[in-house]
Hints:
Blueprint: H1 6-28, E1 43-47, E2 50-59, E3 66-74, E4 83-89, E5 92-98, E6 103-105, E7 112-114, E8 124-131, E9 134-143, H2 148-151
Parallel strand pairs: 2-9
Antiparallel strand pairs: 1-2, 2-3, 3-6, 3-7, 4-5, 4-8, 8-9
Amino acid sequence: MxxxxxxxxxxxxxxxxxxxxxxxxSAINYQATTHVYSxxxxxxFDTEDVALRHMVLVAGEENGPARLIGLASHTxxxxxxxxxxxxxxxxxxxxxxxxxxEAVNLEHDExxxxxxxxxxxGSLQEVTVTVDGTEESFNATVVDGTLEEYxxxxxxxxxASVLDHLEHGPDTWGSGAAHHDPDDDGH
Length: 187
């Protein structure tokens, strides 16, 4: 039997504990970097050889018109021909024919304005996608003109009154707990 000094055993134990500690977190905890998600305001959806990215409906109000923006792409560049895509929202439809590897920007290349959606801004609206006869559904994000980058995309004019609740006043300065007099110059 071979004798190992206590110092050598302690060093080996420290290395083992360190190695287990370094790998233990990733073994039992959720790793956000392994989760596929849409890193924008919109929704992503994949079906057959079609990928829909950043799908957002820009609307001023519930039961009003909305504009669909996002990207639709044919993800199989080796396909033998185009894929036929139909996007339906609340009874209105946009039909696309995508060549292999082609991407269509719904903000610049094509436009789908829905006459009346069922959802209000801040919620989700059902979207039905048909690809070469196969139908699936997903929920798209509904936004309004609160964020400036969406204002020019609204089907109707922007109603600035939706921003009234964002105005700062004496009760919302800082944390809102302290009284602030806007006429007081601090002297």
